[in-house]
UniProtKB/TrEMBL annotation:
GO molecular function: phosphatase activity
TM region positions: none
Species this chain originates from: Bionectria ochroleuca (Gliocladium roseum)
Gene3D superfamilies tied to this protein: HAD superfamily/HAD-like, Putative phosphatase, domain 2
Pfam families assigned: HAD_2
The protein's name in its UniProt record: Uncharacterized protein
């Protein structure tokens, strides 16, 4: 049965397709691509604590739930006009950026795995697709830069967690294959992660296509990046994020939050198109729903 293609384009020798028919059969999942910050490790909470330390130092109000939600998962968000117009700090923006960087360099080595992360990755590493018997492939796609990544995996338990991803399948925010300013919500990082998967597949295996990939993300920007890449998405939002955008959950799952404006709206999904879902934590990952057999 042919899938009803509604949109497609060629990117890095991979067709990116979107299917609008909610009843259309989707191919078996062959790969899962994970975000890191706020999904696998508690670095988002650490960034929040570091920002609040400086806001308090300079006599400014602490981050509100709404502002914290706007900052989550967006590269350079604490250096944005949005944040500084709200914060009204009595110091130059560059000074705040420098001091926040120092705070985070001091705190990132304290990063810890989030609940359910190691169990899920361990199970998936041993998992196979029930329909095809094929091994499940894993990759990492994170906006974090290499120097911050190394600090975040300082603890043995965090290093062990990220060790589930082969080094050549970890794509970070300063990867030279990414275009300038093309971090999430642009799809580039997920398409590069897919290229990394395909370049390291066992000989004889067909290249993985975007609609055979499942993205796990905690941020709104990350969900949109995944949808723009033509991939299926599971959103695992921080409770603050889930509460702040409660009325927009369906739009977010379609990649249509309206928060970002990067053009190419044809890349986005449709509300209730069956390509995305939200779960409260990684413990709630439904292996059976994605036809994955794993030792539980």
């Amino acid at each position: 049965m042919a899938l009803p293609v509604t949109k497609c384009r060629l990117s890095s020798n991979i067709y990116v397709m979107t299917y609008s028919n909610v009843d259309a059969r989707l191919p078996p999942i062959r790969a899962l691509i994970f975000d890191m910050d706020g999904l696998l490790i508690n670095s988002e909470d650490i960034i929040h604590e570091a920002a609040n330390t400086l806001l308090e130092k300079y006599g400014r109000p602490l981050l509100t739930q709404s502002m914290r939600a706007k900052l989550m998962g967006v590269a350079g968000s604490t250096n944005s006009d949005m944040f500084h117009n709200w914060a009204q700090l009595p110091i130059p923006r560059e000074q705040f950026r420098r001091e926040l960087g120092e705070q985070m360099r001091h705190r990132f080595p304290d990063c810890e795995p989030l609940t359910g992360a190691e169990t899920l990755l361990s199970n998936l590493c041993q998992g196979r697709n029930i329909s095809t018997g094929a091994r499940i492939e894993l990759a990492l796609a994170s906006n974090t830069k290499s120097t911050s990544y190394e600090l975040k995996v300082s603890r043995p338990e965090t290093k062990r967690l990220l060790g589930y991803f082969q080094p050549e399948r970890r794509v970070l925010g300063d990867d030279p294959r990414l275009g300038e300013g093309r971090t999430k919500p642009a799809p580039d990082i997920y398409l590069v992660a897919l290229e990394s998967l395909n370049s390291s597949l066992d000989l004889g295996l067909k290249p993985i296509q975007p609609n055979e990939c499942l993205i796990l993300e905690d941020s709104v920007a990350g969900v949109e990046a995944g949808r723009r890449a033509g991939m299926r998405v599971i959103w695992v939002p921080h409770p603050i994020l889930a509460a702040e955008y409660e009325s927009k959950h369906k739009d977010i799952l379609a990649g249509r939050s309206g928060i970002f404006n990067i053009g190419d709206d044809w890349q986005l999904g449709e509300v209730d198109d069956g390509w995305a879902e939200s779960i409260p934590s990684l413990w709630h990952f439904d292996y059976g729903k994605y036809d994955i057999h794993a030792p539980l």
